[in-house]
Amino acid sequence: MSDSTSGPEHVDRRLDTQVCIVTGAASGIGRAIARRFARHGATVVIADVSQTVLEGGEPTVDVIATEGGIAYYVETDVSDDAAVMELVAFTARKFGRLDVMVNNACIRHAQRLTDLTQDQWERVLAVNLTGVFLCCKAAVRQMTRQEPRDEVRGRLINMSSQHGMIAAPDDLAYGVSKAGVDYMTRQIAGDYAKLGIVCNAIAPGKIVTGQGGRLLDETVLDRARRRTPWPRFGRPDDVAGAALFLASADASFITGATLMVDGGWMAA
User: Fold this and answer.
1) CB-CB contact of 42 with 19 (8 Å)
2) Inter-residue contact 99 to 19 (CB < 8 Å)
3) Catalytic residues
4) How far apart are CA 42 and CA 185, in angstroms?
5) Closest among 53, 64, 65 to 28, alpha carbons compared
6) What fold, for 19-110+121-204+215-267?
7) CA separation for the pair 167, 70 (Å, rounded)
8) Which residues pair with 152 in a beta bridge?
9) Which residues contact 167 (CB under 8 A, 6 or more apart)?
10) In this predicted model, what pLDDT tens digit does every residue of 90-105 receive, in sequence order?
11) What pTM value is reported for the model?
């Protein structure tokens, strides 16, 4: 997959002066979100375990710089509480605030119940669910200390999945982790709305990222084709557009929602 981005260039910069963290932004969906945010004027902190681009290409921070944006890389394992606290603290020290936290970092060990090891189970939940918990907690602590902008002190965007709502065949831990992300999103939204915190989730369908894995499994692909009414799979930029909307002032009265970006998967 190339580093080119789809869609028209935007004249209006919807995130000017905003400071955003995007976890798992070295590759795939997170990379597309980081680039989209930077093109709209945000300063973007790329949080990932490395800068290696799984689908190939230059590191995200370098691509954003070439495109005229501002980005910083902070090596971060989101399952490590100390690392997450330092990520948010660094961002606040350097830029004075944190406006948007996108919790995109994710792994999977696609196994059914009887084949899944405890170590695999615990690692998936550590990154996909505990990682979101730790990032939300650190972000909300910072956001509630800062002055609001247009009524909002900060926004959380958590990456869920349609497989948090329906079964992910032979992929127990991933589905459980995403169901937990959906619940956490609603809980945080309800608990912190009065403090000016907006919290939403995005549930992508089958997104072609160029990273391989289950996307190379013809059985998985065939099921996804049959389940998706729209006549193509999703692209990272499809998710990036949804994230931009939820990060912007256009979504100020939307909180506790999960936005489906699935080509009609859950509608069919």
Assistant:
1) yes
2) yes
3) 174
4) 23
5) 53
6) Rossmann fold (3.40.50)
7) 39
8) 149
9) 175
10) 999 999 999 999 999 9
11) 0.92
